Amino acid sequence: MSDEAQTPDLSGGRGFQTVRERLYHALFFVCALLSVLTTLAIVIALLTEALGFFAEVPVLDFLTGTRWSPTIRPVEYGVLPLVFGTVMVTLGAAALALPVGLLTAIYLSEYASPRVRSILKPALEVLAGIPTVVYGFLGLVYLTPALSVIFPSISTFNILSGSIIVGIMIIPMVSSISEDAMSSVPDSLRNASYGLGATKFEVSTTVVVPSAVSGIVSSFILAISRAIGETMAVVIIVGAQANLPEASSIGGLPFVSPTSLFDQFLEPGMTMTVAIVNLAVGDIATQSLAYQSLFAIGLTLFAITLIMNLISDLVAQRYREEY
Amino acid sequence: MATDTTTDDGFGQVSRVKGVVFEYLTLAASLLGIVSLAILLSYVSYDAFGLDAAAPAWYVVFLLTLVAPSAGFLWYVRDRSTVRSSISGVLSVILGGTLVALGLVVVLSIIVGPDVWFAHSLFILGPTLALLGYARYVDDSAVWAGTAAGVWLFVGAVLTAIDDLLLVFGQQLASPFDLVTMPEELLLQAAILLGTPGVYFLTVLVPAVVLADRYVASRSNDRRGHSLAVALVLVTFAAVPLVDTVPAVSRGSWLLVVVGFLTPLGVYVALNAADSDSRLGLAFPLVVLAGLFAGRLVVDVLGVARPEPWFDWQLLTSSASATPADAGLYPAIIGSVFIIVLVAVFTVVFGVGAAVFLEEYASSSGPVGKVTRFIQVNISNLAGVPSVVYGLLGLALFLRLLGMGAGTVIVAALTLSLLILPIVIISAQEAIRSVPDDMRQAGYGMGATRWQVIKTVVLPEALPGILTGTILALGRAIGETAPLILIGIASFVTWAPDGVFSRVTAMPMQIYGWAFYPDPGFRHGVVPAGVITLLAVLLAMNSVAIFVRNRYERST
To answer: How far apart are CA B231 and CA B228, in angstroms?
Structure first.
């Protein structure tokens, strides 16, 4: 302090210090504002280019078109095959990661000793820390050949392998958020249930899981959102062939038989993220329709993941049990 | 509760089968992902280290000389927590020190160059230190000096950056700041007179040794700090004749290795050498090292077939090539380090700034509170945006709108900074939030202003948490590929970047580029080796982060 008077000057008079305080306040505010600017920039960048695209290609054609061929004539921009590929990869990944993640969370929160938990939890985090490009390489070079032993008709690039790898990648997302929710279930609920004669299995499945359901659902949604946005692993493993399954018509409604749907897992596919990367790798001229289509898919992807994240937040907050 | 009971004698027996099956099912689920990843990574290591060429005898030799003694050592100390924490500490320091040394060599001698470093560092730091010294020793009522030093730190950096930009664009004409930057020209001449080792000795080694001495002295009350400083300087000079025999390592690089690797290791050893349990832990790396040498010696003597590793010195020092035997990661490693250093600077400044604002300044009520809540929701949503969308942002903003060159260092660094900024902010907020409020109140009670409390209480207390979060976020940035593809980073660049505007490639880009090569030499050789390199860097970063966190947890 600069005051050297014998009697303390409580009235202030810290001229320079006031200026300095305001300066730092403003500086920190600018830093915080940067994140808002980033969001704005993302929205503006995606919207301006996507609007240019939709001026040429009607939104309805984009959303219902069944062929994706931005560079090879006849040029068509139908997003359905990309949505189909994304849904397939995400479904496969979710089928693996959601049950496994949930069981993992139950084990960590209910069964594991503190020592085991202190080893398992960081080990699970490792799964999320491996770069996705490494996962892609692992899938293409080691997992797909291994799968071809079980499914001889599997192609070099296929959805199944991609689903499994993406599934492994998102396990920790499900398990860590679900486990947080389960750990915050108060012990009094568990003890009440034990007092009524319930076994540990019953306490876990009929008390802890239902009490933590908001956290579990929110973790599921976040993990699926992550799987939808996953890029590199899918680019390397799933290949780049925009496919739709053969659909027959039953009673005027398109119908895809389950077996042909399963066969699609063994075939290459193309997700929205793969389409973005493929267009970016190929040389496309600025302001061309293909360049703008990049942002149209990006906008679709951004909107889907943003909505899912918001729903996940909402579920976690709205349906949280208060103890 | 409907329990499975057999009601033969009143109280009944509960069936345990279902519960036991369920417990093992959950355990199996927990292990599924970890085990699958472990299997896949063991295949990668098998390929990267070329273990298929090794004879069974080779495995036996190393099992006996390396694995058995190390495992025996760990088993012997299994119940002594001091020894175990000392082992993990010294391993983290070794891994982290290697990274720091690599970073110093890349940044100071490859990217910046010794003379420019000398001129810039003295031009920026000289007046800063003078101002701080004035406030501390001459006139301790000069509250403006600290702020002035901070402002000069910023202005000096901007001035030198503008100067460099003018040089990059080939404008040797008079810059508007010539009068201000004139001392810099003189310093540049002085640097040339000093030579590379002289520059590093004065500007890096001496400050590092003094810092190490002060740090050790502040942690222990004897004179170990001084002996450490003397030992470091002696080792530096004594090893010069030895270093001169290795053509790959110049004297300048050696000095940087001393600063980045030996100094932290020395500090750790000096602080832990007094306690006998800790000393035992320090011996673990020696056991491993001795095992490696002994195994190698035995293999040489017996003439056993050795593995033919793809992961070797050649891989780390050669450029990209279409033939597997010549292919290397050198430009990609330099590129990644360059990008990450810039990302670290950007994200620490803005991330910590934003976190301080949200935790210390923002009020939670009124219109300001609404803005704050909006910023908070916005940040957590940004963290969930797919990385490829950030690539689109970089493409539209930096390449098309601002016209920066495709595939350059600066564009990659800015894009990745925006990508990890939300993660850094969130983790920094958590670190700041965990500082107990009593400490702040104590500061205010002594009449400190808000900034003084932040500077002297909050930030020092939160620093380990901030560091841990930032390092983990940087680990995410170093592995990101999708955004790099979109901003035009090439996967085949055969030279290392020499400035922020030069084209660059990065380790994950190189792996992506090679992944599709059908040649088995790439598929089961070079790419696994590249993957191992990337994972080794990540392992080193994460172990440093965990080390920092553990120390912090112990001290509170």
So the answer is: 5
Spell out the alpha helix ranges (H) of chain A: 15-56, 59-64, 80-106, 114-129, 132-138, 144-150, 159-183, 187-195, 200-202, 209-211, 213-229, 232-238, 258-265, 272-281, 289-318
The rounded distance, in Å, linking the Cα atoms of B15 and B20 is 10
**Ranges of each domain in chain B:** 1-48, 114-194, 330-555
Query: Does residue B6 carry a pLDDT above 60?
Result: no
Q: In b/e form, how buried is each residue of B202-241, taking b as 16+ CB within 10 angstroms?
A: bbbbeebbeebbebbbeeeeeebbeebbeebeeebeeeee
Task: Kindly report the nearest CA distance between residue B27 and chain A, in angstroms.
Answer: 6
Is B512 in contact with A204 (Cβ distance < 8 A)?
Answer: no
- Radius of gyration in angstroms for the set of CA atoms belonging to chain A, rounded to a whole number: 26
Chain B closest CA to A323's CA: distance in Å? 23
Give Cα A186 distance to the centre of its chain.
30
Task: Find chain A residues with C-beta within 8 A of B391's C-beta.
Answer: 276, 280
Cα(B436)–Cα(B461) distance, rounded to whole angstroms?
Answer: 9
Contact across the interface for B534 and A171, Cβ inside 8 Å: no
Assign residue B403 a region: left if phi > 0, alpha if psi is -120 to 50, beta otherwise?
Answer: left
Tokens 């679900």, residue?
A178
User: Which A residues, 169 through 198, put their C-beta within 8 Å of a C-beta on chain B?
Assistant: 171-172, 175, 193, 196-198
Please check the confidence at residue B9 and state whether its pLDDT lies above 60.
Answer: no
Q: Which of B513, B507, B515 is nearest to B534 (CA)?
A: B507
CA-wise closest residue to B77 among B289, B291, B282? B282
Confidence class for position A12, pLDDT limits 50, 70, 90: low
- ipTM summary value: 0.89
* B14 beta partners: B5
Retrieve residue A308's tokens. 């899912």
Q: Residues 242 to 271 of A: which have CB under 8 A from any B CB?
A: none
The pTM of the full predicted model, rounded to 2 decimals, is 0.88
For chain B, helix (H) and strand (E) counts, in that order, are 26, 2
The kind and range of the H/E element at B330 are helix B330-356
Size of interface A-B (CB pairs under 8 A): 267
CA dihedral A162, A164, A170, A174 (to 10 degrees): 150
- B13 pairs with which residues across the strands? B6
Tens-place pLDDT, residues B471-516: 999 999 999 999 999 998 887 777 878 777 888 899 999 999 888 8
- Is residue B5's pLDDT more than 60? no
Cα–Cα distances in angstroms (integers) from residue B306 to residues A95, A141, B52, B403, B549, in the given order: 44, 25, 9, 52, 40
CA distance B199 to B122: 11
Domain B330-555 CATH class label: mainly alpha
pLDDT tens digits, A227-251: 999 999 999 999 877 777 766 666 6
φ, ψ for residue A62 (rounded to 5)?
A: -60, -45
How far away is chain A from the Cα of B300, in angstroms, using its nearest Cα?
Answer: 33
Interface contact B381-A17, CB threshold 8 A: no
Task: Calculate the average pLDDT of chain B.
Answer: 84
C-alpha separations of B206 from B136, B189, B203, B422 in Å = 22, 21, 7, 37
Average pLDDT taken over every residue of chain A? 86
Nearest to B515 among A136, A143, A301 (CB): A136
Q: Report d(CA B127, CA B120) in Å as an integer.
A: 12
Q: Which of B25, B37, B388 to mutate to test the interface with A (most CBs of A within 10 A)?
A: B388
Give the number of C-alpha atoms closer than 13 A to the C-alpha of residue B102, restricted to the C-beta side.
Answer: 20
Q: How confident is the model at residue B556 (pLDDT cuts 50, 70, 90)?
A: very low
Cis peptide leading into A74, omega within 30 of 0? Answer: yes
Mean pLDDT of A4-22: 64
